[in-house]
């Protein structure tokens, strides 16, 4: 055995070693949470390179999120400092975008195609609804979009959808789907699902392109395979068709994307699709303590539709899992904050990044956020307003899109009056009509601006706008991205608009961060013939619908879905009430098994200590008095209606040891409705209403209306 072999197999157990060294053929690794599946995958990739079985560029590793891809790259980088760069480590969507960027001309599309984000999609729907006289109240955009997405992923084309529609709602949805696809096809733009769909078509219909990638990818790996959907599977199946080396790892108990079309049967029936599939089981958990695993194992046993497997912890029993039921959700959040505070007091602020608070749905973060802010505990939030979804960022990206392709009507509509140039709805509809009549883009209309009957003011504003865009469009091939950006930021008037108001400081910081990232990109060499700006815009579109990356230290707040594959020393699961987790919808629809798997994912993220919290009181969403989640009962953490179980740790709030960072919040009675105040974090605001300790305060943008504890600690009266 060579040294390299030793190095990469060292520190792995026998089954893990087998999974790493079984490089040939179809290999399935099925194993529970924390058993080292992702670790095996990274070691396997490194092993293949060190054993000279393939060049790095001949290896593909597919992950579920950009964050997971970045983490995997980092781990592989560590194992293979010189060789990791050219390995393809990415999500399905990124893989498809990359394949399409090089080859989509075979389908009659330009290589620098634009990818629509969800806002763009809604814009498209808005026009379609107006045309078809469909009311958004009847069919909300998100409903239509998920219908379109499901149809695409099920390979149902608009014609078939139309033919099979019988009920009035189905007929309407089919007509929306048809108009949507027609528009995207005419504009030659793609949405997110199209990345998969077009790649599937390309590989299926174009033998040469398929052969090229089949030859290239000698070894293919997929992490989190339990959440693969049918079309994704077809793509990897085709790609692996020549070398027939495909290694997939996953845990059927962690399948949590059924609602988005993932099909956990694919991993269970994997051996039926290929000859000679080798299955390797890992049964030791290296992540969590036995206490955490016992609770998680006990919970998941309640799923009927599963293959039984039991995990044993490599580590000892550890601390008991704790459950706390608070009187209401504010106290629940306070309990979380206090407990975090105690952990920090005990272990130091160095453990901030090792703490996560997980919740079932995004809306639950609101109180947690305000409580953590009030407690001066820094946090990062994943999955809510993400960087690339912030208004100023989207505006500037739209400018870049327009510079790249002046005929991009969506981008045009977004920024033509941003900053305000006096171009109102009337002028916009004149442009729309003219564009329609002359079959041209909005931007092209401006060539005949004199024929459009605008007032001199509008005409001047539009001409100046067009001039900037055209000039920069012509310069895009020669100027750096950062220069183009700086120029459009300045010349569009956006910079003046933002900097005129000190309240915009965080927006300006966002813009600066974007500019920095462009500068970094400028220093990198591009590896294909599409323009840098085009390539950049495509990459951005991927980020806008994916997870983001925040670098400061802090407690991590995220939904359970986005915590998949991750691990933290200390994990809180907040909001463990019936109708919250499991969700109301899952209870109503009797679809509890996926929800239970989600709880299993949540619990198994914890390494050292797991805290679960719930609250009593009234749930305004379910319109019911809150009760602790049935999952607590199933996991053996709570029994019946009373706290009989010793494992329950329920402390009254007063007993919390308060260290100096969290002081008692002293509520003041000085505050009155209508008063102007300044908050130490949110800035200036006006008190809209008061209800006991709580004040609803309208803060200046971007903070908006917030309900917080009124205390002199955070609030100063202005008058
Ligand atoms: N043989 C081992 N010795 C020591 N630590 C290990 C070993 N195998 C895995 N680990 C560690 O255990 C933890 C869990 O591993 P990993 O994240 O690869 O598990 P996983 O099976 O991918 O989990 P999940 O199902 O949650 O994605 C990691 O911190 C990893 O480094
Ligand atoms: Mg993993």
UniProtKB/TrEMBL annotation:
The record ties this protein, via SUPFAM superfamilies, to: P-loop containing nucleoside triphosphate hydrolases (SSF52540)
Q: Which keywords does the record carry?
A: ATP-binding, DNA-binding, Helicase, Hydrolase, Isomerase, Nucleotide-binding
Assigned EC number: 5.6.2.4
The record, for Pfam families, names: UvrD-helicase, UvrD_C
UniProt enzyme class: isomerase
Q: Does the keyword rRNA-binding apply?
A: no
Q: Which GO terms describe its cellular component?
A: cytosol; DNA helicase complex
InterPro entries the record matches: DExx_box_DNA_helicase_dom_sf, DNA_helicase_UvrD-like_C, DNA_helicase_UvrD/REP, P-loop_NTPase, UvrD-like_ATP-bd
Q: Name one GO molecular function term.
A: ATP binding
Q: Which Gene3D superfamilies match?
A: 1.10.10.160, P-loop containing nucleotide triphosphate hydrolases (3.40.50.300), PCRA, domain 4 (1.10.486.10)
Do you know which CDD domains this protein is assigned to? DEXQc_UvrD, SF1_C_UvrD
Q: Which residues bind ATP?
A: 31-38
UniProt record similarity statement: Belongs to the helicase family. UvrD subfamily.
The molecule here is called DNA 3'-5' helicase
């Amino acid at each position: 055995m060579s040294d390299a072999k030793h190095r990469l197999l060292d520190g792995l157990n026998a089954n893990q070693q087998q999974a790493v060294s079984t490089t040939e053929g179809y290999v399935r690794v099925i194993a529970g949470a924390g058993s080292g599946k992702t670790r095996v995958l990274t070691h396997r990739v490194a092993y293949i390179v060190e054993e000279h079985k393939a060049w790095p560029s001949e290896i593909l590793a597919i992950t579920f999120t950009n964050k997971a891809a970045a983490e995997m790259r980092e781990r592989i980088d560590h194992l293979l400092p010189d060789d990791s760069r050219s390995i393809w480590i990415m999500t399905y969507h990124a893989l498809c975008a990359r394949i399409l960027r090089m080859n989509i001309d075979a389908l009659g599309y330009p290589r620098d195609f634009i990818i629509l984000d969800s806002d763009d999609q809604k814009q498209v729907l808005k026009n379609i609804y107006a045309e078809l006289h469909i009311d958004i109240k009847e069919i909300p955009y998100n409903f239509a979009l998920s219908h379109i997405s499901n149809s695409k992923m099920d390979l149902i084309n608009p014609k078939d959808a139309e033919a099979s529609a019988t009920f009035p709602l189905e007929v309407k949805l089919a007509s929306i789907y048809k108009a949507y696809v027609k528009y995207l096809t005419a504009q030659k733009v793609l949405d997110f699902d199209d990345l998969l769909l077009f790649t599937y078509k390309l590989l299926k219909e174009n033998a040469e392109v398929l052969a090229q990638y089949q030859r290239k990818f000698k070894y293919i790996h997929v992490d989190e395979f339990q959440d693969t959907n049918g079309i994704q599977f077809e793509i990897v199946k085709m790609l692996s068709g020549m070398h027939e080396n495909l290694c997939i790892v996953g845990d059927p108990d962690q399948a949590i994307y059924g609602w988005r079309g993932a099909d956990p049967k694919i991993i269970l029936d994997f051996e039926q699709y290929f000859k000679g599939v080798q299955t390797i089981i890992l049964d030791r958990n290296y992540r969590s303590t036995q206490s955490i695993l016992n609770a998680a194992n006990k919970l998941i046993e309640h799923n009927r539709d599963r293959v039984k497997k039991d995990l044993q912890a490599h580590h000892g029993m550890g601390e008991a899992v704790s459950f706390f039921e608070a009187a209401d959700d504010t106290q629940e959040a306070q309990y979380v904050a206090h407990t975090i505070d105690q952990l920090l007091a005990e272990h130091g602020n160095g453990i901030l990044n090792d703490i996560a608070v997980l919740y079932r749905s995004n809306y639950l973060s609101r109180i947690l956020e305000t409580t953590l802010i009030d407690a001066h505990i820094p946090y990062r939030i994943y999955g809510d307003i993400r960087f690339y979804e912030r208004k100023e960022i989207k505006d500037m990206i739209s400018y870049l899109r327009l510079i790249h392709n002046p005929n991009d009507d969506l981008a045009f509509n977004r920024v033509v009056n941003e900053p305000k140039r006096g171009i109102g709805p009337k002028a916009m509809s004149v442009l729309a009509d003219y564009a329609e009549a002359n079959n041209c883009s909005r931007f092209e209309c401006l060539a005949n601006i004199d024929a459009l009957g605008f007032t001199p003011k509008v005409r001047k504003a539009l001409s100046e706008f067009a001039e900037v865009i055209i000039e920069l469009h012509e310069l895009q091939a020669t100027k750096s991205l950062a220069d183009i950006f700086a120029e459009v930021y300045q010349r569009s008037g956006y910079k003046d608009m933002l900097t005129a108001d000190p309240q915009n400081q965080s927006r300006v910081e966002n813009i600066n961060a974007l500019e920095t990232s462009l500068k970094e990109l400028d220093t990198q060499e591009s590896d294909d013939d599409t323009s840098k700006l085009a390539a950049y815009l495509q990459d951005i579109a991927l980020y806008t619908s994916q997870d983001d990356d925040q670098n400061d230290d802090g407690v991590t707040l995220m939904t359970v879905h986005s915590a998949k594959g991750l691990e933290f020393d200390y994990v809180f699961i907040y909001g463990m009430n019936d109708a919250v987790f499991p969700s109301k919808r899952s209870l109503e629809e009797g679809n509890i098994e996926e929800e239970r798997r989600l709880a299993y994912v949540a619990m198994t993220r914890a390494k050292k200590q797991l805290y679960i919290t719930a609250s009593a009181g009234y749930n305004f969403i379910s319109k019911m008095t809150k009760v602790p989640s049935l999952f607590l009962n199933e996991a053996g953490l709570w029994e019946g209606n009373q706290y009989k179980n010793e494992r329950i740790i329920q402390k009254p709030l007063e007993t919390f040891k308060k260290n100096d960072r969290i002081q008692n919040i002293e509520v003041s009675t000085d505050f009155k409705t209508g008063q102007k105040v300044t908050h130490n974090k949110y800035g200036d605001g006006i008190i809209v209403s008061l209800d006991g300790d709580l004040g609803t305060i309208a803060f200046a943008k971007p903070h908006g209306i917030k309900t917080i504890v009124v205390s002199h600690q955070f609030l100063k009266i202005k008058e």
